[in-house]
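agent> call fold_tool(seq_1)
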Amino acid sequence: MPLEAVRQTLAQTPRIIEGLIAAAPPDALTFREADGRWHIVEVLSHMADGEITDWMPRLERILADGGRFLPFDREGGFTRYRGWTAEALVGEFGQRRRANLEKLDSFRLTAAHGSMTGIHPEFGPVTLDQLLACWATHDAAHIAQISRLLTRSFGRYVGPWRKYFSLLQEGPA
């Protein structure tokens, strides 16, 4: 995946999420598909925390020495951002993402950097290209998750039209 495509995806994500949740009622932002599944506020906490503790530290580790990544606590943002509103989290995520994109730009990465590696605690060696592709994929997956959660939250009220929505026919993803 070309670096510019990754960068454009990463730059658009905060705006896309902001647009998705802008008019969502509070109960939609905390709607759970099932016990143990994340709601939108938790997804946003996870994404904001990842901007601090996951993507950039791993990228910097690859560029510095290719050493071992620290494990990422996928639910660490739940503690860091406990009590935050969805709107505040989108703002925090956007601010941290902009700072990370500025830092990414400062590295002046070339195609040659893409094959540099770091050591993932579960997968072993991974390349910078793989990390960047994962970052963009992670964004797209959470955008889809937020959209699905909004669809299913509103879908509770559609009555007989439920049969026309495939996302309302499926169980939790």
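agent> call fold_tool(seq_2)
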Amino acid sequence: MRTKISRRASRTLAAAAIGVLFFTSGALAQSWPSRPIRVLVPLTPGSAVDIVPRIVLEEVGKELGQSFVIENRPGASGALAARAAAQAPADGYTLLAHSSALTIAPYTIANAGYDPAKDFIPVASLGIVPNVLVVAPPKNINSLQQLVTKARADILTFGTIGTGSPMTVWMDRLQTSAGFSVQNITFRGAPEALTETMTGRIDFYSSPILAALPFIRDNKLVPLAVSGSRRSAALPDVPTSIELGFPDSDFNFWLGLFAPTGTPPEIVERLNTAVKAVLARPEIIDRLRALAIDPANMSREEFADQVRKETVSFASLAKKTESAPARSN
């Protein structure tokens, strides 16, 4: 036997359901965090995308009274970690520390498994990380111009961490500007790619400055150019690719913290406030700058706008060039 429910009763039930939803969300936010918070990272330990969140979130954990547990999930140009984070409960206990690759990968690889605009809430910017183009000294390449000349005459091997990674995007822009091609060799992370570059098994690599700096200082790698729109304070004598005469070849590589869509706004705001407070500390600024990181302490709205614009830009570029995903990972 069916029971008829009046329109007024239906509205009352719907309002009650919404009330329960908001009460549950509010109660969750008030009690958060009551246990350690998992942070998925898309690269291996030792990469800039791994080190910077560890530095910042260790201090954020002290602010919030709970620890952050870093879980490295490398693979598929960062899509494995992003996919897992997108599918996690939106309760504030699973976050994603990612880079510019988050907005790039869905338009350059097949089956990325997430939508950067729909699946994530940008929580906070963690910094800007310029890349540096490096070669081993035995290659006898001492300038970007020499590398370009050699690459125009012969196909050189270039280390990447997968299609759609920020270093690959920079290399794509540089190739387009300078008119040469390379053979991409994929690695799981920067440490492995740097090792292969130093041994000479691959010709060159575009590395986050943080990872390459010790080897540059020890003369195990030769820096040729940095990727950003301006020089890095960590390598003030190394010019940008723009300075060296290759227009539209620059690329700025950012790091940020994200939460799955649906995470209570109170939790997102609390996280943002804590991160910004940590990034404003002089000792944290000095520590990050010593590692070639610009803290980039922007508001949550500014960071969200940056992510949105990049997502739209890469989606538009993929459509214009008809560069639909050609392979799965």
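agent> summarizing second result for user.
The domain at 131-226 is CATH 3.40.190.10 (D-Maltodextrin-Binding Protein; domain 2). The CA atoms of residues 92 and 263 lie 6 Å apart.
agent> awaiting next instruction.
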